[in-house]
Write a structure and sequence with these properties.
Elements: H1 2-25, E1 28-35, E2 46-49, E3 62-63, E4 65-68, E5 71-78, E6 83-89, E7 97-98, E8 108-111, E9 116-121, E10 124-125, E11 144-153, E12 156-165, E13 179-183, H2 202-211, E14 219-223, H3 229-232, H4 237-257, E15 267-272, H5 274-285, E16 292-296, E17 301-302, E18 305-306, H6 307-312, E19 322-328, H7 332-349, E20 358-363, H8 370-374, H9 377-385
Parallel strand pairs: 1-9, 13-14, 13-15, 15-16, 16-19, 19-20
Antiparallel strand pairs: 1-5, 2-3, 2-6, 4-5, 6-8, 7-10, 11-12, 12-14, 17-18
Helix pairs in contact: 2-9
Length: 389
């Protein structure tokens, strides 16, 4: 009997190994070799990109393996036909790799076709540039912004806040304004602080729409992310701590220091990718605080994330909220799109109606980055703050 059990166990282990090997064999092996002449011995090189194995753009998630003092490597497996985008850092976007000319590079891109080894030579890093204006960025801040540094919340890391004020704020001193709370705040207005050197241009979009009288004048609060972004923007304890920080600490601070319309009807939230997920969570779980959410390229249902089920399983009365969802069709967005489709179906089953309190836009050919989201700013701004609403 003991021998029979041993044989069965061996067969199970062999089958599992073969399955793993077969699965891996169906994928293409991509090996990065990064040469870093002059890098100090205390530093570590990371890769960040648009796949879970690349940390979903978390700059401190995926370490490369050190070969020697100036060489790093790591091997990944991707599906044939998958397009990956990535960059290299020393653990944060303030230490990302630059071009030899000292500029912020666009994302590296690779369409996976076969087993490939790719070599990179990195000689300059962002933190080694002594003056920020030595780095070439596209764009600038339009309008008036105010900064608040190292704001603290219980259970989460401190973070900076940037507040964009509408054109009439300084001149019409009796007027009060709706507020839009946006995640990934460093990427919204200023290319110098944006993780990829290109911002959302949300300041330009809002300023133009306001001056064209297409939307109400609004205040936009940008909440910087931290290295815990992927956990904070998720249905985790840290995610709920992050939401509580916004509700219990940040919103009261903004309402006290700026002329806001603090009621739920004039309070909205928005973000992209994991920021799109946390935006829906905030309006869904706290409709007494937020009335609207904009969810761009949202991670509603992918990997071990499934917030669609949370909405689907909800049995109570329809919540008094409005939701904007959009998604591209290329790269990571193509993998996120099924989750967006399912979320919209779940919301429709709960009584939300397209073109009324639910908007869903599919941006054909659009990918998963700041430039793509910048092109769609006007859509959610008009949906949430349009003069006809």
């Amino acid at each position: 009997m003991k021998n029979l059990l041993s044989i069965i166990l061996a067969l199970i282990l062999t089958s599992a190994f073969c399955y793993s090997q077969n699965k891996q064999n169906k994928q293409n092996k991509i090996t990065f070799i990064v040469l870093t002449p002059g890098l100090d011995s205390a530093s570590t090189v990371y890769v960040a990109g648009n796949d879970s194995s690349l940390g979903y753009w978390n700059p401190a998630e995926t370490k490369l393996n050190k070969i020697n003092s100036s060489s790093w490597t790591k091997t990944f497996y991707f599906n044939p036909g998958q397009e990956i985008e990535f960059k290299f850092t020393k653990g944060s976007w303030n230490t990302e790799a630059l071009t030899n000319a000292g500029t912020v590079p666009p994302n590296y891109k690779l369409n996976v076709r076969n087993d490939t080894t790719i070599y990179f030579i990195i000689k300059k890093w962002k933190d080694e540039i002594s003056q920020v204006n030595q780095i070439q960025y596209k764009g600038q801040i339009t309008g008036t912004v105010e900064y608040f540094h190292d704001m603290k919340g219980e259970g989460i890391k401190p973070r900076d806040i940037i507040v964009w004020l509408p054109p009439s704020y300084k001149t019409n001193t009796t007027k009060r304004y709706p507020v839009l709370y946006m995640h990934d705040g460093q990427n919204l207005f200023d290319p110098k602080t944006s993780a990829f050197g290109i911002d959302w241009q949300l300041d330009e979009s809002a300023d133009s729409l306001i001056k064209a009288k297409a939307i109400k004048q609004i205040i936009i609060v940008g909440i910087y992310n931290t290295s815990d972004r992927s956990i904070e923007y998720n249905d985790t304890k840290l995610g709920h701590d992050y939401m509580n920080f916004i509700i219990d600490s940040l919103k009261p601070f903004i309402d006290k220091n700026f002329r806001t319309l603090p009621d739920r009807e004039n309070t909205a939230t928005g973000g992209s990718s994991m920021g799109g997920l946390i935006s829906l969570m905030m309006v869904w779980e706290h409709p007494e605080i937020f009335s609207q959410a904009a969810c761009l390229s949202p991670a509603f249902q992918i990997g071990d994330i499934d917030y669609v089920r949370r909405v689907h399983d909800y049995k109570d009365l329809k919540k008094p909220i409005r939701i904007y969802v959009d998604i591209g069709t290329v790269d990571l967005d193509s993998r996120l799109k099924p989750g967006s489709d399912e979320m919209v179906k779940a919301l429709e089953q709960k009584g939300y109606k397209l073109n009324t309190d639910l908007e869903y836009f599919v941006a054909k050919g659009a990918t998963h980055n700041e430039a793509a989201w910048a092109k769609r700013n006007w859509r959610y701004l008009e949906f949430m703050f349009g003069k006809n609403y």
